[in-house]
Amino acid sequence: MVDVKEKLRKCEFLKGMHIDLNDAAVTELCGNVGFDFLWIDTEHSAIDYGCLQNHLIAARAAGVASIVRIPWNDPILAKRVLEQGPDGIIFPVVNSAEELDKAMKATLYPPDGTRGFGPVRAAEYGLMDTEEYIKKKSKALIRCVQIESYIAVDNLEEMVRNPWIDCFIFGPCDLSGSIGQLNDVFGKDTQALIKRAVDILHRAGKSIGVSTGSDDPEVLRKWYDLGINFISAGTDYLHILSGARKVFSILSGLGG
């Protein structure tokens, strides 16, 4: 498995996709393709805790890093996900240094943070030595937050000082919505915000990500050319739909 955390710390390129469907077989299938990570989404999908654990097991079987987006920057929401042992976690809509500190502390045990102790699958159901989990494995977690508002961009200079964060990820649709231009992600105003943020993050030596539903080569190249090194592109259901449409078009051409 690729050491995603190390690559993020070095700002190296990483490629992944989103998992939104409930069937863990999809995660195993997509993980076997060769992606560096799978973004398992619990913010905008029907994936519940039991379903999530199956996805995490499938990701491990495929040898791909699992990074879970929780629905909100909430320590309680983070806790149950962390106890299941994902490789990483993503907090959406983080707008200030204070909110970022809250998110990071939710992933860290005292004295560094506020995480309550009780790992289950994360500590291999008790097979892992407790001190080893606390001092090593828990700190190896990939920690990401999303920039989804102009407020976050305004506060980014202060946010990048947090020592625990591994990657800042653009949520471009919500970022455009925060300035009243929802989904105009390549519009002049939204791109100005993104380029401003990219400049700050590059100067701070931070990895920069984007979450996009697109599988268009030109769109993905645009993100890459902006200096983004962590790209999660497309979703499981869209990739299935794309293949289905292709076959439908071919068959329709044969028989009308």
Defining key terms:
eight-stranded parallel β-barrel; alpha/beta; globular; TIM Barrel; 12 helices; 256 residues
Describe the structure.
The protein is α/β, with parallel strands linked by helices and 256 residues long. Helix content is 45%, strand content 16%. It has an eight-stranded parallel β-barrel, surrounded by seven helices. Helix 2 runs parallel beside helix 3 (49-62) and helix 4 runs parallel beside helix 5.
Helix and strand composition category: alpha/beta
Helicity, in percent?
A: 40-55%
Radius of gyration: 19 Å
Terminal CA distance reads 46 Å
Count of β-strands: 8
Mean pLDDT: 97
Low-pLDDT residue spans: none
Order of helices and strands: HEHEHEHEHHEHHEHHEHEH
* CATH first level: Alpha Beta
Order the strands across the largest sheet as they lie in space. 1-2-3-4-5-6-7-8
CATH fold call: TIM Barrel
Q: What is the number of independent domains?
A: 1
Strand content: 15-25%
CATH architecture: Alpha-Beta Barrel
Shape: globular
Helix run count = 12
CATH superfamily: Phosphoenolpyruvate-binding domains
What kind of sheet is the major sheet? 8 strands, parallel, barrel
Reconstruct the topology from this structure.
Elements (H helix, E strand, L loop, with lengths): L3 H6 L4 E6 L4 H8 L5 E5 L7 H14 L2 E5 L5 H8 L5 E4 L5 H10 L23 H8 L4 E6 L2 H5 L1 H4 L7 E4 L1 H6 L10 H17 L2 E6 L4 H9 L4 E6 H20 L1
Parallel strand pairs: 1-2, 1-8, 2-3, 3-4, 4-5, 5-6, 6-7, 7-8
